[in-house]
Amino acid sequence: MTSPIRVGYFLEDIAHAQFVTAVVQRVAESLHLSVTHDVRNASGGRGRVMHELRNYLRDMCAGHIEMAPLIVVAIDGNCSRWQQRRREILDMALSAGYAGNVVCAVPSPHIERWYLADLDAFRSAVPGSNPPQLPSRKCERGYYKKALMDAFRATGVIPQLGGAEYARDIVARMRFEKAARRDPAFSRFVGDLSGALKACR
Fold first, then answer.
1. Cα–Cα distance measured from residue 141 to residue 78, given in angstroms and rounded to the nearest whole number
2. Residue 165: helix, strand or coil by DSSP?
3. Strand 5-11 relative to strand 70-74, pairing
4. Which of 31, 61, 73, 132 is the most interior residue, by most CB within 10 Å?
5. What is the dihedral of CA 61, 65, 68, 74, to 10 degrees?
6. Which domain holds residue 43?
7. Domain count of the chain?
8. What is the pLDDT of residue 2?
9. Residue 175 and residue 182: Cα distance in Å, rounded?
10. Taking the chain, what is the end-to-end CA distance rounded to the nearest angstrom?
11. What confidence score (pLDDT) does residue 141 get?
12. What is the pLDDT of residues 33-74, one digit of tens each?
């Protein structure tokens, strides 16, 4: 039996961690691959992600820690271009001499939009919820976080982790093709992830 692929993660917060690891697990299973999740950072926002990633790459390329064949980095687009965020991550890996695969998850503009990318999946995972139809793109701080919390309010429950505790159930029910059509950033992530996992076989 093939050994599991170790995936290293650098993520902004728990909302990223719960959702992104669930997507990786599901994509890996669809390819009949086994993965282990090595979450190295899941707090502190973009600045902390980039700082910890730089240190990790330095230590890994120096041989101080075991090489991970795949690294997933998730940072919100925050209304910046996806290519810009992706380039700064890939440039960091390249300058460190990392020879593995790097996949960038860049929700545009924020991760909460991905939680709402498939409204049927959300309703199924959170019975009694009332998720709103989202605009194609809304560049406003807090817009999608508020939309996500409003969707939960119909249930009478305010999630203690801002909805992150429902991420695995939502992802399990998502139709990725539908979500990808509604959200180009999600489509890029799933496509890049699938290619990287195949390359790690």
1. 8
2. helix
3. parallel
4. 73
5. -90
6. 5-111+167-199
7. 1
8. 75
9. 11
10. 12
11. 73
12. 999 999 999 999 999 999 999 999 999 999 999 999 999 999
Q: What are phi and psi of 46, to 5 degrees?
A: -60, -45
Give the position of tokens 């120096």. Answer: 62
Separation CA 63–CA 58 (nearest Å)? 9
In a domain, residue 147? The reply is no
Q: Within the chain, where are the H helices?
A: 14-30, 45-61, 82-96, 112-115, 119-125, 143-153, 167-173, 176-182, 184-199
Residue among 62, 86, 72, 73 at smallest CA distance from 36: 72
Question: Residue 58 belongs to a domain with what CATH number?
Answer: 3.40.50
What percent of the chain is modeled with pLDDT above 90?
Answer: 82
| Residue owning tokens 């505790």 | 165
Angle between helices 45-61 and 82-96 (to 10 degrees): 30
Region 102-123 average pLDDT: 95
As a whole number of angstroms, the distance between CA 117 and CA 42 comes to: 22
pLDDT band at 111 (very low <50, low <70, confident <90, very high): very high
Residues in the chain: 201
- Whole-angstrom distance, CA of residue 149 vs CA of residue 57: 36
Q: Is residue 153 assigned to a domain? A: no
In a domain, 80, yes or no: yes
Has residue 14 been placed in a domain? yes
CA 147 from chain center: how many Å? 19
